[in-house]
Amino acid sequence: MAEGLLMMSGLLITERAPRPATVMLPYRGESAGEARRMVRGKLVEWGLPELIDAAEVVVSELVTNAVKTGCLARMTVTVRRVTDRTVRVAVRDGSRILPVLMVAGEDEEGHRGLALVHHLTGGRWGASVEVCGKIVHADLVVGC
């Protein structure tokens, strides 16, 4: 639901999108737990409990990847309603190196995170480079 105007019975009514949530976190493994709590709380507030499990896994993977960049400042984690049915989880970090979807070998312990994000989002994820880093986002859709 985007901010806009709605005309009902001759009255002009302003519609507002639900407020996104943003948190700045240190580049530490424990930050994934804080990001999960923030995302879970927002999804409960928005009445979207069916997205909680997938969103917690997605934000954990994105935060874990940001931690591995070796950046020293803080990452930014955001969750926002893109539409009535779509929620975007995004992590901004200080590295300009884009993530790569890899196929892990059967014996490998790693390289499965983005494949999991890809699966949970139906391929609705991506990354964009910024002047001082990048944003990796993943979209979850109600009913998918």
Describe the structure.
- By secondary structure, the protein is an alpha+beta fold.
- Helices cover about 30% and strands about 35% of the residues.
- The protein contains three helices and seven strands; from the N terminus they run βββααββαββ.
- The chain has helices spanning about 30-45, 50-65, 115-120, and strands at about 5-10, 10-15, 20-25, 75-80, 85-95, 125-130, 135-140.
- A five-stranded antiparallel beta sheet has the order 3-4-5-7-6. The chain has a two-stranded antiparallel sheet with strand order 1-2.
- Strand 1 and strand 2 form a beta hairpin.
- The longest helix is centred in the middle third of the chain and has 16 residues, at about 50-65.
- It is globular.
Q: How many E strands?
A: 7
What kind of sheet is the major sheet? 5 strands, antiparallel
The global form is globular
Helix content: 25-40%
List the secondary-structure elements in sequence, H or E. EEEHHEEHEE
Task: Please give a handful of descriptors for the protein shown.
single chain; 144 residues; alpha+beta; 5-stranded antiparallel sheet; two-stranded antiparallel sheet; 3 helices
SSE blueprint and pairings:
Blueprint: E1 4-8, E2 11-15, E3 21-26, H1 31-45, H2 52-67, E4 74-81, E5 86-93, H3 113-121, E6 125-130, E7 133-141
Antiparallel strand pairs: 1-2, 3-4, 4-5, 5-7, 6-7
